[in-house]
Specification:
Blueprint (H helix, E strand, L loop, with lengths): L1 H9 L18 H5 L13 H4 L12 E10 L3 E11 L2 E17 L2 E16 L2 E14 L2 E16 L2 E10 L3 E3 L2 E3 L4 E10 L2 E10 L4 E13 L2 E8 L14 E9 L2 E8 L5 E9 L1
Antiparallel strand pairs: 1-2, 1-16, 2-3, 3-4, 4-5, 5-6, 6-7, 7-10, 8-9, 10-11, 11-12, 12-13, 13-14, 14-15, 15-16
Amino acid sequence: MRGLLLVLLSTLPAAAAPTASLLDEGVGARVMAMGGAGVASVDDATALYWNPARLSALKDHEREAVVAHAELSEGRAQYAGYAQQADDSWGGVGALYRDRPGRPAGDFETSDFALMMGYAKRENEGTAGLSAKYLRSRVPGASAHSFAADLGVANSDEGRTTALALRNMGPGLKYGRFKKDLPLTAAMGFGYKAGEVAMGLDYEYRPFTGAHDAGAGVEWEFFKGFLARGGWTTKDEKAPRLVVSRGFTFGGGIRLAGLRLDYAFRPKAGRFHRFDAAYRF
């Protein structure tokens, strides 16, 4: 699987600007509070977005349903997902919607929608995952439909997780005569968990734009069921030069039995507020 990811990446042209921004803005308050470092450290049903191989975070035939809402600097985003384990494999479904109500054209809003299905299977000492997406995008005066796929691998051992993912492989979206590429992303990540502390570190490369980004974060369960999170990311940096303070992210969560409530915010560039509710059973 690692060889396949490298071969696919080496054949991709570096051209054109991406669209369907909902595929590149992140999902889930826990990961986003940790600087968007989710390739290896994601541990819930939002793994369909970050890395389908990390559906393997569900153990002992667990099932999880999650809903997420984000208030972004421009518009809103919602996600709903479900995942479950069955023996040495995992499956999940999810839907992601993004709108920009401040940019109407008559009664026509700019919006994006993605419907996702994913599958992961244990392979030797690791896990390999695949997800497929149906995409719909609407802009003033035009709409487009397409398909995309993600590949991912992950390996966990004694609290350490290493992972690779290739996200948003697809033919792009065609609005009439105009075609826009998807935000294709190659990502690698490292996660670590020891006792009450968990950490994540990600690196992302987007071959269509040549952009590089990194994110890192930490989670601390300071009291049983109560968690604090913080992180930093280079993504969505709007300043003409790197301004460290613009990349900080913060958040927290409560876990009570199978119920989980999470919140995340970013006060500066690309600011957001995110709220999640999940139930694992």
